[in-house]
């Protein structure tokens, strides 16, 4: 708590020096710095080479590489965990796309991490059993990674309430199940103790219970991500998605994907594997439940990993294709919306003086551009315009994690409307003045009244039934700008008076 208060205070005190940095959406840092080989947990991994015996395991360290913005001094940042593709058989945290995405988001101000998770299952016997358990082990590891970052948030400068998960293919299976698979009867039967028979010796085996979704260390922390991006992924069944599964999600998928079906089917078209429901069916279920905190990017005619990778490796050997920056931007914008404040304001006016009222949500620092070359960092400033016109007034705000939002509205400064000015022709002399002024007019009016306001809209003097050429006494007023509001039966006119 003390650390958060200090950060908020520092944010407010130094706001004007680094305002409008657009952290989390723009590349603010020249590079990222990696902390390699961080052990985030330990779990029993099936021994190879063919992964046929579920009870034959060896304790395996779970490793992640953590990326931070180089030279960033901020200490309260969202974190993003990336999980690589590979069908739960291949791949690792050093996949080209995972490293590139970690670096890209770290340059924007996030803390990112690319994880290894347990892999390996028998493809030729009891395939449904072994593949289901392989996915479940991956889910457990993904949630272990989330808990690890929450538990070590202070060490890595992370906001523990904002841990996001991005998965590609198999990694997407992990992320999506981590938010949709509940610790209830939704856990597949194959996860418990189950007897099975291999077609090769040794033949008869008993698979042990893999346990709950959250196993291992840091069990007092929540293992469910706060948002998920699923790229070309799927889940066991959309029946897993219920009204309480409200975690924000971005679904990215090629509609012609033959590896993980956009609708439903067995991965790789290998019918021994259980069918899974792809992004289109997930989106339809979310629509049916009325969820609005989700986004999609579905591309007709595109297949698996359509941003230019094969199992996470650049297909051309050097980088992604034209879809990579599009998808990177989709991920960037989606995650930013999860933690940004919401900028808004309204205003009241009295002549040329405008009182702006901040109605934003979640803001702790403010930067106003009044559209006339002047600025303020007050929450609710008053500003006096020197001329009539239409001004584009921008409010930029930030919250405690340095996330931002802005809004620009048109503010019209006018002494009167055209109808109000009709038929009025007043003048004052001298102006500027060191003392009093005289009010003159050409037309004949039954009544002429005036009021004088200072720059903040306070009434300082008034008189009714003014005579032509009558002096207006200003000797008791301080030097500065005043507004003379003249009322007749034909309308109202406002004139600025400068007392020198």
Count of helices? 9
Shape: elongated
Please report which band the strand proportion falls in: under 5%, 5-15%, 15-25%, 25-35%, 35-45% or over 45%: 25-35%
SSE-based structural type: alpha+beta
Oligomer: single chain
Main pleated-sheet profile: 8 strands, mixed
The portion of residues assigned to helices is 10-25%
State the separation between the terminal residues, measured CA to CA: 52 Å
With strands numbered from the N-terminus, the spatial order across the biggest sheet is 1-2-4-3-5-8-10-13
Question: Which segments are poorly predicted (pLDDT under 50) over 5 or more consecutive residues?
Answer: 1-19, 416-424
Radius of gyration: 33 Å
The count of β-strands is 29
Mean pLDDT: 91
Question: Can you tag this structure with a few keywords?
Answer:
single chain, 500 residues, alpha+beta, four-stranded antiparallel beta sheet, 20% helix, disordered N terminus
Explain what you see.
Helix content is 20%, strand content 34%. The strands form eight sheets. Strands 1-2-4-3-5-8-10-13 form an eight-stranded mixed β-sheet, sandwiched between helices. A four-stranded antiparallel β-sheet has the order 19-18-21-22, with no helix packed on it. The protein is elongated, with a radius of gyration of 33 Å. Helix 4 (127-151) crosses helix 6. Mean pLDDT is 91; it is low at 1-19 and 416-424. It is of the alpha+beta class and 500 residues long. The chain contains nine helices and 29 strands. The chain has helices spanning 2-13, 15-18, 96-107, 127-151, 153-156, 170-180, 279-288, 323-339, 418-421; strands spanning 32-46, 57-69, 77-83, 111-115, 158-168, 194-197, 204-207, 227-231, 234-235, 249-254, 264-265, 276-278, 294-299, 309-310, 313-314, 345-350, 353-358, 365-369, 375-376, 382-384, 389-398, 404-413, 426-429, 437-441, 448-453, 459-463, 471-472, 480-488, 491-499.
